[in-house]
């Protein structure tokens, strides 16, 4: 994609960016366009760049029409729908050479014409809307639909598809349907009557979205929690994780309320802070419910003390960290992968935690379910390391699948019957020699009663300050952690496996890397790619690191946290690992990966594309 | 601490409750607190209360934070699960545990440091959430485990053992709970078992958050002259306003009360609390009146004790507001929780 000339004849491969003011209802118009393209069978991605604000600040939405179904952000903008006067000048600047600028010419702006290498498309949107509709709010909302109509005509979006979408949205409210349809036609017809259309950048029907959905990761994860059988969710509102609990609650209201009695098979607790939220998860999990909390970096910082308790007292706990830009409050509405080290070693003392790294919403769904199985099997906290890009943006994913034969792995919980056959129960004795001990649930029987504590304890569950007794438990916890990979998802390997050059990455970098691999492949640069899906690392990770002489570690933070984790937790030589970092807060694009790999390989030509064995 | 383990064999003549269990079977491990610690008396009252209620040990869940008081959950009902969590965070553990299983009986034991300083936020919100639990504050005005610093409940002018004088105003948990809308608020004294046991029983049976502030002197760091939480001071400034008798469901009310003196309050399981007003001007069902009464007495350095306020209705209890299923959430079969493949297939249409 990079380097393509915007005004060349490009079908199903270009980027439209909308510049809006937040709080004006533009989101529904933008997603209307995106969904229409998706329904035409053309793969799309939607990225929302929004402010930490409710009304009045600039916000952008970017739709990438991508016939090759790339998931990453593209690094150029071909069409700018410039609806925010305040950001006109920067929006004009951002447009790539040969691009198109659509603006509201009700108020002419000569400054727009300063660039000679773009085409300015003037549509008097406010005038059109004001002539046809009443009411200030109504006009603001319908102007959005009108520009959707303009764009539809310009890029040749099937009007019938859009109409069908509008009918689905407003079918039960005929007045709204009428006004929205009218606004859409205002824009559409204006283009047809006054301008040349379609542009060389246009959409054509394809058949590449069948069996796919558009979904964001938070919705998918919330749904995963419902399917996993979670009954208790505790949280404190924080961007960008809030919509995960909203989704859980919404799906529970649909699937978990008895239609006759109104009784609910779930409880959502909005806590006073993240400390309490994770405390509630511990309390509920300890008491035998599947419980979870969604949060983001600042919340994780607060949860540290309880995470250490969960680790040491061996209480299952599922935490979704929808990562955002740090440090501190940082940029709450921008994306990053900057909590990797924080989560891997959260809390004081010797602690290490299981991390899962979903790369897209689809994996958020499946990993949500896995997270509960792993947390209960290992009786330890599990972090699902999503991020804002995955969590809040709409991604094209294959339809989610469910196997009705699935049953939760509740781990080693002694039933009342098993307890009846026991003379004595000891909470932390390694009976099976697998470092995982048996637990019992409150309410089961006095034989199974034990005392959970974060203070020093021996394997019998008793308080101890005896060094040897303390070490027995601590050493077993280490063995348990080392044994964890057998329960965790293995890395994804892409490529022939024969190159000397490898990329190692995780999470939402995946889209950009896959696109970069295609670009490099076309330049005859053969690179192997390993996407790590979990921590502690599987032995496959060790092997990949050993068998590639030059390795690029791609991640979205400044300090190369994933690279640090690799150097700490594997035998890899530090000097082999080259970092490719993106920490601007924007989702990663393929360009820096392509450029940095090419530059590095040019420095050391003997490494380049030559496979190890010819 | 005491060093002599009690013999394991119980004398056959020991009285048993309706489950056929002796008091000894409600004990826990040996206390490691200082000899004469008020907290050990509270532990004894909890044992007596649970035995008296014929509570099945496995039906009780014991929760605590960190501190001398929080250690005590190990010293009673060893047949119950216990969770000694982190400092000031027991209310969140209790809230989560209670969300998972509404059928068990939850007792939290905390101290004035655990509840009124580091954990005041969690205490406040557990009251607001009206979590069904009994929450005991063993209140001695000092940090014992760190050797005698003032806590947030220390009175102005009270002297530390080493001579420092406290100048910051105290936080009174009873007044705090009343302002937050707590539906069961009591105060007692660790040395008054006769008053404390029925309060604990009523608190365990109350369907909602029951707070009992128990003045429980610290013999090591706060039992000297100049302390307002010493045994001597507490006994001298103790003002019992409302005595409570707890009458379990199946028991007939056999106590005679003079007309106008007694006020029966029904709890959700059919048991009753009979309040005996020792001060005729006092109305424990009127929150505002209770607040004013306690506040005025505190100004005169008098600790009002007894069941200070009760609201027998349980409409704001967490699960009642949430419409949670009657069956504990942790017991609902997976088949009822997971919507299954057909529902998922159908749902996919929403995302196209």
Written overview of the protein:
The complex is a heterodimer of chains A (614) and B (352). Chain A has 614 residues and is an alpha/beta fold. In chain A, 38% of the residues lie in helices and 20% in strands. Chain A is built from 19 helices and 24 strands. In chain A, helix 5 (159-170) packs antiparallel against helix 6 (174-194), helix 7 (217-228) packs across helix 8 (242-255) and helix 16 (510-522) crosses helix 19 (591-603). The radius of gyration of chain A is 27 Å and the shape is globular. Chain B is built from 12 helices and 12 strands. In chain B, strand 7, helix 7 (193-205) and strand 8 (209-215) form a beta-alpha-beta unit. In chain B, helix 3 (90-100) runs parallel beside helix 5. The relative contact order of chain B is 0.12.
Write the layout of secondary structure elements.
The complex is a heterodimer of chains A (614) and B (352).
Chain A: E1 10-11, E2 13-21, H1 26-39, E3 44-49, E4 58-66, E5 77-82, H2 88-94, E6 95-104, E7 119-123, H3 125-132, H4 136-155, H5 159-170, H6 174-194, E8 201-202, E9 212-215, H7 217-228, E10 232-235, H8 242-255, E11 267-270, H9 274-286, E12 291-295, H10 297-313, E13 317-325, E14 331-335, H11 340-344, E15 354-356, H12 361-378, E16 381-387, H13 388-392, E17 395-398, H14 416-420, E18 451-453, H15 467-483, E19 492-494, E20 501-506, H16 510-522, E21 528-532, E22 534-535, H17 539-547, E23 550-555, H18 561-569, E24 577-581, H19 591-603
Parallel strand pairs in A: 1-8, 2-5, 5-6, 6-7, 10-11, 10-12, 12-13, 13-16, 15-16, 20-21, 20-23, 23-24
Antiparallel strand pairs in A: 2-4, 3-4, 9-17, 13-14, 15-22, 19-21
Helix pairs in contact in A: 1-4, 1-5, 3-4, 4-6, 5-6, 7-8, 7-12, 9-10, 16-19
Chain B: H1 38-53, E1 60-64, H2 68-71, E2 81-84, H3 90-100, E3 105-111, H4 112-116, H5 120-129, E4 133-139, E5 142-143, E6 149-150, H6 173-180, E7 184-189, H7 193-205, E8 209-215, H8 231-236, E9 238-247, E10 262-266, E11 272-277, H9 287-299, E12 303-310, H10 318-322, H11 334-337, H12 340-347
Parallel strand pairs in B: 1-2, 1-3, 3-4, 4-8, 7-8, 9-12
Antiparallel strand pairs in B: 5-6, 7-12, 9-11, 10-11
């Amino acid at each position: 994609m990079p380097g393509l000339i915007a005004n060349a004849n490009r079908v199903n491969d270009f980027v439209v960016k909308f510049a809006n003011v937040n709080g004006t209802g533009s989101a529904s118009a933008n997603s209307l366009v995106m969904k229409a393209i998706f329904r035409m069978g053309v793969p799309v991605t939607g990225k929302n760049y929004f402010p930490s604000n409710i009304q009045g600040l600039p916000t952008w939405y970017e739709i990438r029409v991508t016939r090759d179904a790339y998931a990453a952000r593209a690094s150029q903008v071909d069409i700018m729908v410039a609806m925010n006067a305040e950001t006109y000048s920067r929006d004009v600047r951002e447009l790539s050479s040969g691009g198109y600028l659509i603006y509201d010419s009700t108020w002419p702006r000569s400054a727009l014409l300063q660039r000679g290498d773009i085409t300015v498309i003037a549509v008097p949107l406010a005038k059109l809307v004001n002539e046809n509709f009443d009411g200030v709010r109504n006009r603001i909302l319908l102007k959005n639909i009108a520009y959707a109509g303009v764009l539809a005509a310009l890029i040749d979006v099937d009007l019938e598809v859009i109409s069908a979408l509008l009918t689905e949205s407003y079918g039960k409210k005929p007045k709204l349907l009428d006004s929205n349809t009218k606004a859409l036609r205002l824009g559409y017809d204006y283009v047809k009557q006054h301008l040349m259309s379609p542009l060389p950048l246009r959409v054509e029907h394809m058949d590449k979205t069948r069996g796919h959905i558009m979904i964001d990761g938070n919705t998918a994860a919330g749904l995963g929690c419902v399917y996993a059988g979670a009954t208790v969710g505790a949280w404190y509102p924080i961007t960008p994780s809030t919509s995960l609990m909203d989704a859980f609650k919404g799906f529970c209201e649909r699937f978990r309320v008895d239609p006759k009695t109104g009784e609910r098979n779930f409880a959502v607790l909005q806590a006073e802070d993240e400390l309490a939220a994770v405390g509630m998860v511990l309390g509920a999990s300890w008491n035998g419910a599947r419980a979870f909390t969604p949060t983001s970096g600042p919340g994780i910082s607060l949860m540290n003390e309880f995470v250490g308790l969960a680790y040491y007292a061996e209480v299952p706990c599922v935490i979704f960290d929808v990562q955002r830009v740090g440090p501190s409050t940082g940029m709450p509405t921008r994306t990053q992968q900057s909590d990797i080290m924080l989560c891997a070693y959260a809390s004081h003392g010797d602690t290490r935690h299981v991390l899962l790294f979903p790369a897209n919403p689809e994996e958020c769904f499946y990993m949500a379910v896995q997270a509960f199985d792993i947390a209960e099997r290992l009786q330890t906290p599990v972090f699902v390391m999503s991020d804002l890009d995955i969590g809040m943006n709409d991604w094209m994913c294959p339809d989610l699948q469910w196997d009705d034969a699935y049953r939760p792995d509740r781990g080693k919980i002694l039933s009342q019957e098993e307890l009846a056959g026991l003379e004595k129960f000891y909470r932390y004795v390694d009976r099976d020699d697998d470092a995982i001990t048996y637990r019992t649930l409150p309410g089961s029987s006095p034989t199974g009663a034990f005392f959970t504590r974060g203070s020093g304890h021996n394997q019998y569950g008793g308080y101890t300050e005896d060094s040897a007794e303390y070490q027995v438990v601590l050493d077993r916890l280490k063995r348990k952690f080392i044994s964890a990979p057998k329960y965790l998802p293995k890395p994804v390997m892409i490529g022939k496996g024969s190159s000397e050059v490898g990329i190692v990455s995780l999470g939402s970098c995946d889209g950009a890397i896959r696109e970069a691999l295609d670009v490099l492949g076309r330049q005859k640069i053969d690179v192997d790619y390993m996407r790590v899906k979990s921590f502690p690392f599987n032995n496959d990770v060790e092997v990949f690191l050993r068998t590639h002489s030059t390795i690029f570690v791609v991640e979205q933070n400044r300090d190369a946290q994933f690279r640090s984790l690799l150097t700490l937790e594997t035998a890899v030589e530090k000097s082999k690992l080259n970092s490719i970092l993106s920490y601007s807060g924007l989702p990663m694009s393929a360009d820096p990966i392509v450029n940095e790999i090419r530059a590095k390989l040019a420095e050391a030509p003997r490494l380049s594309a030559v496979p190890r064995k010819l | 601490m005491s060093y002599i383990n009690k013999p394991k064999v119980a004398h056959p003549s020991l009285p048993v409750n309706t489950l056929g269990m002796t008091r000894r079977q409600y004990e826990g491990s040996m206390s490691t607190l200082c000899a004469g610690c008020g907290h050990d008396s509270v532990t004894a009252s909890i044992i007596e209360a649970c035995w008296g209620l014929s509570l099945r040990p496995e039906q009780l869940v014991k929760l605590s934070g960190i501190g001398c008081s929080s250690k005590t959950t190990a010293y009673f009902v060893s047949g119950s699960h216990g969770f000694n969590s982190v400092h000031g965070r027991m209310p969140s553990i209790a809230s989560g545990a209670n969300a998972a299983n509404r059928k068990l009986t939850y007792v939290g034991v905390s101290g004035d440091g655990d509840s009124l300083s580091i954990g005041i936020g969690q205490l406040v919100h557990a009251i607001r959430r009206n979590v069904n639990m009994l929450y005991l504050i063993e209140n001695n005005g000092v940090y014992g485990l760190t050797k005698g610093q003032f806590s947030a409940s220390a009175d102005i002018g009270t002297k530390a053992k080493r001579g420092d004088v406290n100048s910051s105003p105290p936080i009174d948990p009873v007044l705090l709970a009343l302002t937050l809308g707590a539906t069961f608020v009591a105060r007692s004294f660790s040395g008054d078992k006769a008053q404390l046991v029925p309060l604990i029983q009523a608190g365990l049976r109350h369907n909602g958050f029951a707070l009992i502030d128990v003045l429980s002197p610290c013999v090591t760091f706060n039992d000297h002259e100049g302390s307002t939480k010493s045994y001597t001071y507490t006994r001298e400034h103790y003002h019992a306003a409302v005595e409570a008798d707890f009458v379990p469901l199946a028991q007939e009310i056999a106590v005679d009360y003079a007309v106008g003196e007694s006020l029966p309050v029904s709890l959700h399981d059919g048991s009753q609390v009979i309040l005996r007003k020792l001060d005729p001007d006092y109305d424990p069902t009127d929150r505002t009146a209770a607040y004013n009464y306690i506040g005025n007495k505190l100004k005169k350095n008098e600790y009002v004790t007894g069941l200070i306020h009760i609201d027998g209705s349980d409409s704001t209890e967490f699960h009642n507001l949430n419409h949670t299923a009657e069956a504990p959430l942790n017991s609902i079969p997976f088949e009822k929780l997971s919507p299954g493949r057909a529902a998922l297939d159908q749902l996919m249409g929403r995302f196209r």
